[in-house]
Automatic annotation (TrEMBL):
Ranges where the Pyruvate flavodoxin/ferredoxin oxidoreductase pyrimidine binding domain occurs: 289-503
Enzyme category, top tier: oxidoreductase
Gene: korA
Ranges for domain Pyruvate:ferredoxin oxidoreductase core: 544-627
Region (Disordered): 1-30
Keywords: Oxidoreductase
Chain intervals with Polar residues compositional bias: 1-10
Native source species: Streptomyces hundungensis
Domain called Pyruvate/ketoisovalerate oxidoreductase catalytic: residue spans: 47-234
Protein name: 2-oxoglutarate oxidoreductase subunit KorA
Keyword Coiled coil set for record: no
An example Gene Ontology biological process: response to oxidative stress
């Protein structure tokens, strides 16, 4: 039977799931419904394996060919207090048969492994949604720990939902009897039982998960087979139990993607690959000097695996040592990178100023998180923008680049490397926790699609004195880019002074001359102002009078909200910034076209402040700093109010 195709209105990103068809089935077989999208949230204790469960479901969904977007959400503690609300870890996955942009506003299915998981997530679950509950964990003590006086499974408080009570722990232990595991060891596989059940429920492939489990536990084959058995038991439970009378299918998103080879990728992994690709395209060794910090550590972990590409990673004793080593590598002729989050940027600020003075290429990757100070290590925020712009002593301008989706982190890393190498400058790459940990399909580019980033090192004298003597001037500039020459240490005749004290124009000698300092400050600023960045494009099919302007990871929620409004007949224009310093040259002209400019940000209005200051535009801020990304419906409501205000 040919399935019905969903209408454009039904395909509005973030909307509730829609049944778009139903398969015929022989008598006695379970009903199979076709959906155009599903949002699933796995939730449990931080030790219950919810992130692993979500990752595996995501991998199989990507293999199947759906478009997808994910939102991992977990505590900062390695092992948060069991059974408590602060200890709840969750993983949300939105997958569809068409192009989507966000992990979804509200889950259609909640898998709650204990009372804390149910209570922490129930407010996000819409009426009529499916809730799968591990009934084994609903003992009086566990419920009292999170404030349940009576069992929500029995007091009618869940009557608005389709609740499926499943004794996940008991069923898992029963399925693993033959393996001779202790009760505690067997219980650890209950997440695989839940994964098997959901895989049956949504017709996900299973071969990849079984292969993954056997590889993950290769040194403990009995544990590997126990997890595979639990996974299969969950699948079989869904097939045989009367409680699940319906399973669902979400067709591959065949029209959502251009032709090519695709894989599922997280933001940090895409960024790592982008750095490696940039080094290969520049024909330079890649050097990472870093100190581990959430949520940036995965980049260090990933790059350390790729020594075959000339990558060298150094885990320093602190943030300052990390950037110091990276800056030394830049001086030595490497594509140098340092990775961190907001607290680390604060510690690196003096060395970033030194990089500005030395005018060497250096990538400062800031995976932003909630602040100030240690703040919210595992939650997302966009509050480091002004720190990246101005968080150094003196006039120390640095370009700022911000990716907009997990997959876009690859291209943003390439772009940041282009700017750093061409203009001999440190560059900020501002990702955040939402992008870093979230994932989506990524088309693997062909080699010939990547830009040529090769640079020429200076190998001989570049200046002739009045008496005809040929000498090397380390601060003689390229007339187009204003970049100074890059001389590798040890090149005969190119010895030159480095350090943080002001340089004399051209010669690079120490200079305290007021006029020279004024010139050097202005020339460094002019170099950054002259960085070539593409014009910003505007999506405005209806001649709107209201523009929504975003940057970084707000792209998905903003675009989803714009789609909703246009489906309702509301005119709204959208522009999104990758380059924040310098701004695209056409930005001022674009802003002047509109009566209203709305800037949603996960901070208290930092981009809006820059826009107001530079363009004298009355930009209206809409801000959120709760550690979570915007929801599409939330932004749609705000933007609709702005249109009609």
């Amino acid at each position: 039977m040919t399935s019905q195709v969903s209408s454009p209105a039904e395909q509005t990103d973030g909307a509730d799931e829609a049944v778009v068809g139903e398969q015929r089935r022989p008598a006695g077989e379970k009903e199979v419904r076709r959906l155009d999208r599903v949002i699933i949230r796995f939730a449990g204790d931080s030790g219950d394996g919810m992130q692993l469960t979500g990752d595996r479901f995501t991998s199989e969904t990507a293999t199947f060919g759906n478009d997808l977007s994910t939102l991992p959400n977990f505590p900062a503690e390695i092992r948060a207090p069991a059974g408590t609300l602060p200890g709840v870890s969750s993983f949300q996955l939105h997958f569809a048969d068409h192009d989507i942009l966000t992990p979804g506003d509200a889950p259609n299915v909640l898998v709650a492994m204990n009372p804390a998981a149910l209570k922490a997530n129930l407010a996000d679950v819409p009426r009529g949604a499916e809730i799968i509950v591990n009934t084994d964990e609903f003992a009086k003590r566990a419920m009292a720990k999170v404030g349940y006086d009576t069992s929500p499974l029995e007091d009618g408080s869940l009557s608005a939902y389709n609740v499926h009570p499943v004794p996940l722990t008991t069923l898992t232990i029963e399925a693993l009897k033959e393996f001779g595991l202790s009760r505690k060891e067997a219980e650890r596989s209950k997440n695989m039982f839940a994964l098997g059940l959901l895989s049956w429920m949504y017709h996900r492939p299973t071969e990849g998960t079984e292969k993954f489990l056997r590889a993950k536990f290769a040194k403990k084959p009995e544990i590997a087979e126990a997890n595979v058995a639990a996974f299969r038991a969950g699948w079989n439970f869904g097939e045989t139990t009367e409680d699940f009378a319906v399973s669902y299918e979400v067709a591959p998103a065949t029209k959502a993607f251009p032709a090519g080879t695709y894989r599922n990728i997280s933001g940090n992994l895409a960024l790592s690959y982008g750095l490696i690709a940039a080094a290969q395209q520049a024909d330079l060794p890649l050097y990472l000097g870093s100190y581990p910090i959430t949520p940036a550590s995965d980049i260090l972990h990933e790059l350390s695996r790729h020594k075959n590409f000339g990558v060298r990673t150094f885990q320093a004793e602190d943030e300052i040592a990390g950037i110091g080593a990276a800056l030394g590598a830049a001086f030595g002729g490497s594509l140098a990178v340092t990775t961190t989050s907001g607290p680390g940027v604060a510690l690196k600020s003096e060395a970033i100023g030194l990089a500005v003075s030395l005018e060497l290429p250096l990538l400062i990757v800031d995976i932003q998180r909630g602040g100030p100070s240690t703040g919210l290590p595992t939650k997302t925020e966009q509050a480091d923008l002004l720190q990246a712009m101005y968080g150094r002593n003196g006039e120390a301008p640095v370009p700022v680049v911000a990716p907009r989706t997990p997959a876009d982190c690859f291209d943003a890393a390439m772009d940041a490397a282009r700017i750093a190498l061409a203009y001999r400058t440190p560059v900020f790459l501002l990702s955040d926790g939402y992008l870093a940990n979230g994932s989506e399909p990524w088309r693997v580019p062909e080699i010939d699609e990547l830009p040529d980033l090769r640079v020429q090192f200076t190998t001989g004298p570049n200046h002739t004195l009045a008496d005809g003597t040929e000498v090397f001037w380390p601060y003689k500039r390229d007339p187009h880019t204003l970049a100074r020459p890059w001389a590798v240490p040890g090149t005969p005749g190119l010895e030159h002074r480095i350090g943080g004290i002001e340089k004399q124009d051209g010669t690079g000698n120490i200079s305290y001359d007021p006029a020279n300092h004024d010139f050097m400050v202005r020339i460094r600023q002019a170099k950054i102002d002259g960085v070539e960045v593409p014009d910003v494009s505007v999506d405005d099919p209806d001649g709107a009078r209201t523009l929504v302007l975003g940057w970084g990871s707000t792209y998905g929620p903003i675009t989803a909200a714009v789609r909703r409004l246009r489906a309702q007949g509301e005119p709204i224009a959208q522009a999104h910034l990758r380059h924040i310093n310098p701004f695209p040259k056409n930005l001022g002209e674009i802003l002047a076209r509109y009566d209203k400019v709305v800037v949603p940000e996960m901070n208290l209005g930092q981009l809006a402040t820059l826009i107001r200051a530079k363009y004298l535009v009355d930009a209206h801020s809409y801000n959120q700093v709760n550690g979570m990304p915007f929801k599409a419906e939330q932004l749609a409501t705000v933007l609709k109010e702005a249109i009609h205000a």
